[in-house]
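Most newcomers find our protein records easier to grasp once they have seen one. Sequence and backbone structure share a record, each on its own labelled line. To make this concrete, we reproduce a full record directly below:
***
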Amino acid sequence: MKTSRLGRPASAAGIFAVTVFAASGPTLAQVGVDGLRLVGRNLDQYAHVMSFQVVGDYAYASVGFGRPGLETYDISDPADPVRVSTQGGASWRASVSEHALFSYRHLDGVEAYDISSGIPVLLDAYDPLQARTSYEGGVRVGDSLYVASHQIGIEILHIREGGFPDSSVSAGRPWGVDSRTGDARAGNGRVNDGRVDGAPADGARAGEAQVAGRTRVGPRMSLSYGGRIGLTSNAAWDIEASGGYLFVANGRFGLEVVRLSGTPAPVATLPLPGLANDIVISGATAILALGPDGVATVDIADPNHPLLLDIHSTLGNAFSMGLVGDRLAVGAYPYLEEYDVSDPRSILRTGWDQARVYAMGAGAGVNSAGDTVYVVADWEGMAVYLPEDDPGSDIEIVPTHLDFGAVTTPRDTTVEVRNTGSGTLHVDFITTPIGFSASPTDFMVPPGGVQHVTVTATGAPSVQGKIHYFSNDPDEFARDQIFSTQFVYQNNTTFPQAGSPAPFFQLRGTDGNFHWLTRYLGKVVYLEFGANW
């Protein structure tokens, strides 16, 4: 079920494409056994994870809103990921160079951490000279950190490193991790083996007692401004480096290549569809996430003449990626997807999961046990997957949202209940809000199969509710059954219905002036929404 599209023009500006599921029928995705097995979750995180970096037994999550913005998870046991640290400000993305992790804090600069012990130790923080400069990602080359600055192109930060002559606190900052309650785990060798000090209190996990203020002997680092590189169009989201060149995921302008030798300068651009927002490099191939337009492979053997090789549509909105060998993990909201990019001219989807945590931030790596792990998260926590089939059943519901709009007489729509596992799925019963019904409510689905369920809206008053599917999928468990839930709406006055008068609003335009909808009565008004996250 592969689809490739080459040579499409770049789409309009924006952060996400919004798909509205009408009640006339399901939006089809992929049917079959999905090739990914959910092995562990940690639901302590309830924030907006934008991306992951996986380094050995640790996964570092960049949380895009609020504080703390950098979360660290011990994934040495993929079935039981443990959050061991939270710190720093809101982070859009992170990059790793040897034992240093750089957290790009969007509007608040860059934080540098030492991760040689696993737990990040803050070394230095840099605030941008230009107010409201958006730092989206970056890469280190030698003693320079090249930062994707969404408004001004690429900002260069100089890195200065040195050791401590005594037992001073690293860069004058305390070393600390958060504390929280949970089952005691003393002596398991995972979070109480010297990486984090402190004995657990009753009901607290080992290694998670508060230790703020402890000193640690180690490296230090300082960041200072070193200049900027203007791009042809300044919309940089992320950067990778290879062979003396920078390769920039440049938003709606596609790929841009910058030569570092001599006076750094752009040398090539490659228009791409969608929104180029993440990039990884494997040999002579650059791989880009294009938001609603999928993933692309580009031949960069000659950096001055990048060549588009293939584009593969994703089931969701491709935002964050991780690469292990020839296997690419993509956080394609709301799916986690896996691709084989061993032949960059023919991208092959090899796995997917209608992610239990609304996959957006994603990363991939190999832990100390030799397991290839994929880590994903968004609002509902984080999850760890292995690239293999589920041994049991695995329920997927398509679409995840039903909006019937205005209902005056009963209306039907068809929902697909899929089994993407390798065992038989048994749905025991389905519950619906008042004003809805479903049929059938008790059925079995073979591996890779699908059961069509008719959902009927009866014309009741305004409803915003949930349809729950109770099954033998071992990954589905109680907590309002959020992972087996379909959201449903009818006669919903929260949003305007088709044909109804538009609600009044006022907006500040790109001209700096306010505009009122009432001033445009009788005229066609086109609105394009972006974001300044």
Observations:
- The chain has no helices and 39 strands.
- The first strand starts at residue 37 and ends at 42.
- The CA atoms of residues 107 and 134 lie 5 Å apart.
- Confidence is low (pLDDT under 50) at residues 1-29, 164-217, 478-482.
